[in-house]
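Appendix B. Chain record.
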Amino acid sequence: MIIPELTKTPDEKFAIGLKYIAPDLTAGATLSSCVVTISPTETSGLEVSGVPVISGSQVSQVVMNGVDASEYNVIFKTTTSEGNVFEDTIYVKVRSI
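Structure tokens predicted for this chain:
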């Protein structure tokens, strides 16, 4: 499994997300829910803003803040209309410019 990775500054705030395709999302199936968590949790660490957004076969979450020189796992726990549950991670590095 390849884990997507990105780098942001502590001041940036933007959406990150995933797109599900076959065979994970079969014809006629939809994404029904998503819960996003961040690990590790720390004071002034990377945070979510708002709730996850499901749009068709994609799910996204706005992230903000983060401690310079820290790394975080943003974990998407996504459920499909067929009852399949996927846990995927985006690895986020925070670096000041």
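Further analysis of this model is presented in Appendix C.
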